């Protein structure tokens, strides 16, 4: 198949070994070692070729599941990001959910329909938060993060992410990442959640404070507050 041929042509064994270390939950043999910039260029090339030649290489690839390599899954997500029809995008990403098995693919989410269909996407992302599958739940958090950055978030949305309860590191880390971003826009709300809300679990609280401490955007006074609360949380 053309897509697989193009992907293998971009493979770098050293980069594959590097990426495999970033995703220790997967078999290293599943990595080709393709840089994200090259994957994004391949998306443009494939979509452009389909338009120019009246072919359907991309639709055929999107219906060929499961994929063997992680980079195929990332390419799949990047192609879905380009979809301009919300209903079709929602159908296609729902079909893709059973095959999400690592953070690298999930974090490639970035649908272009987000701003126009933010209300629809929010409803869908909220169902993902309730899913039992680790990486579907992470996808829900990442979708909320994208919406936070593009259109903002209601208090209830920020609170719901803060209240996520999970034994999975990759869900809790995403929630911590989200709360750090929310802290930039709604510092008083996030302060209250992290310092006073007992429904915020310890893992999420610790990871959020860690992210706030690590961020270069955190003002000195807020950094001092976060460090102090982080120490109390560890105690």
Automatic annotation (TrEMBL):
InterPro entries recorded: ARM-type_fold (IPR016024), DNA_alkylation (IPR014825)
Pfam families per the UniProt record, alphabetical: DNA_alkylation
Name of the protein in question: DNA alkylation repair protein
């Amino acid at each position: 198949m053309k897509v697989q041929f193009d992907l293998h042509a971009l493979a770098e064994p050293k980069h594959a070994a590097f990426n495999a270390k970033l995703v220790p939950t997967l078999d290293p043999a599943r990595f080709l070692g393709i840089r994200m910039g090259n994957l994004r260029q391949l998306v443009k090339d494939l979509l452009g070729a389909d338009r120019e030649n009246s072919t359907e290489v991309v639709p055929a690839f999107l219906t060929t599941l499961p994929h063997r390599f992680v980079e195929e899954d990332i390419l799949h997500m990047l192609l879905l990001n380009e979809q301009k029809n919300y209903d079709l995008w929602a159908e296609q990403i729902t079909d893709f959910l059973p095959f999400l098995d690592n953070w690298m693919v999930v974090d490639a989410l970035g649908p272009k329909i987000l701003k126009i269909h933010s209300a629809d996407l929010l409803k869908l992302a909220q169902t993902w938060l309730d899913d039992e599958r680790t990486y579907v739940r992470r996808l829900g958090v990442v979708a909320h993060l994208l919406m936070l950055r593009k259109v903002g978030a209601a208090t209830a949305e920020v609170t719901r992410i803060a209240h996520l309860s999970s034994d999975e590191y990759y869900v809790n880390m995403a929630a911590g990442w989200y709360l750090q971003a929310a802290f930039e826009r709604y510092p008083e709300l996030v302060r209250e959640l992290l310092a006073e809300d007992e429904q915020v679990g310890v893992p999420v609280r610790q990871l959020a404070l860690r992210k706030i401490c690590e961020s270069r955007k955190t003002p000195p006074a807020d950094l001092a507050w976060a460090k102090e609360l982080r120490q109390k949380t560890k105690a």
